[in-house]
Structures are given as structure tokens and as C-alpha cells.
Specification:
Number of strands: 18
Number of helices: 0
Shape: globular
Strand content: over 45%
Helix content: under 10%
Strand order of the largest sheet: 1-2-3-4
């Protein structure tokens, strides 16, 4: 993943994830030595953008915004927002599009799907949907357990890919596989006692 940011003031800044974790590098043109700007080993650098003259780069790291300027270390940008009084604790929206990854439960009574990055549940006949996840991560790959009481799915948080299980009957979620290596594609055994999954897309 090599993303060119700027090519001004005879320098080029890039986002390079060849090592496994995206970091920012800078190189003087035409043949300067690469200089590493960031050295993160976990979530890395995401969505970098530069200002018009290339003197500042802003990027996301670990769900926080950072800025970098030549000669300085990256600095976290503090964001403060004044909130209004909250009168309604919940709201109801009627949506007719935007859902994906629809999966009907084995007993045919429930439908799980992805909407706005979260996992939702709705009765087969329609009605009020219930959100099963409420995290900052993005979810996909819904797989029902044979008993229709649990769902497994993959969650991306920052640079991590992990597998979670949601016990619908008990109303709780727990991590099945959450290591430094990317896990995904969960598959239940016929008796619902075991879950197989991929590690690094190959194991």
C-alpha cells in the first residue's frame, strides 16, 4: 500500500504498509534517503492528508487525530465539543436501504444484517430492528450458530481483525479470537460446539 501525499518543496511523503503496519515516510527529491516520520507497530497511520504547501500532514492513529510538521514529533490534536442538553435517550428511524450481509437464522425466525457498520437483528416477519453491537469497529461476515441463538462475525478496529460471538439469548458479546494476527471467516461446526476461522487469510 503506497499512497502518495505531496510532491512539493522537492520532497515526497508516502504512507507505506509493506512492513505490516502503515507508517509515514519522507524522501527528498530526486534521490534523497527515505526518512521515517512515524514508527507505530499496532494500529498505524490512516487517512493522511496534507495542507496546500505540504508543511503539515494530519492523520488518524488509534482513533485519534495527529498532526506532523518537519522538525517535530507527531502531536495529538485535542478536539473539544460542547454538547447540547439531551432530551431523548433513543429515536426510531425508518430505513429502506443501506443494509448488507443479510443472513436468515437456521430456524427461519430471525434475520441478522449489517447497517452502518454494526450488526442488527430483526424478526423474519419484519418490525423493530435491534442493534446487537455498539462499538467503534466495523463488522462483517455474519454466521449463525445451528441453534439460531448465537452469531459469529468479524470486527475491524483500527488495524486489528478479530472474531466475536454474540449470544442473543443472554444479550452478551465476547471475543472468540482477538490476537495481534488478523482473524476472520468464522464457520460453526454442525453441532454448534466449535468454530473454525482463518488466520492471516491462509491458516
Amino acid at each position: 500500500d503506497l499512497h502518495r501525499l505531496i510532491r512539493r518543496q522537492r520532497q515526497m511523503c508516502i504512507r507505506d504498509s509493506a512492513s505490516g503496519c502503515p507508517n509515514l515516510w519522507r524522501r527528498r527529491l530526486p534521490d534523497g534517503e527515505p526518512e521515517q516520520i512515524t514508527d507505530y507497530d499496532s494500529t498505524g497511520v490512516y487517512f493522511p492528508t496534507a495542507n496546500a504547501d505540504g508543511s503539515m500532514i494530519v492523520f488518524e492513529h488509534d482513533f485519534q487525530l495527529y498532526s506532523w510538521q518537519p522538525g517535530r514529533e507527531p502531536e495529538r490534536i485535542e478536539i473539544q465539543a460542547v454538547t447540547d442538553t439531551k432530551y431523548n435517550e433513543s429515536r426510531v428511524e425508518k430505513l429502506s436501504s443501506g443494509g448488507s450481509d443479510f443472513k436468515v437464522s437456521p430456524d427461519g425466525k430471525k434475520i441478522a444484517f449489517i447497517l452502518r457498520g454494526d450488526v442488527w437483528l430483526i424478526p423474519e416477519e419484519g418490525g423493530m430492528a435491534r442493534r446487537l453491537t455498539n462499538s467503534s469497529g466495523e463488522h462483517w461476515g455474519i454466521e449463525w450458530a445451528p441453534d439460531s441463538e448465537k452469531i459469529a462475525y468479524t470486527r475491524r478496529t483500527g488495524g486489528d481483525l478479530d472474531i466475536f460471538v454474540n449470544d442473543i439469548a443472554e444479550g452478551r458479546e465476547y471475543a472468540l479470537a482477538a490476537t495481534e494476527r488478523p482473524e476472520g471467516v468464522p464457520r460453526w461446526s454442525p453441532d454448534g460446539e466449535l468454530i473454525a476461522y482463518c488466520v492471516d487469510d491462509k491458516e
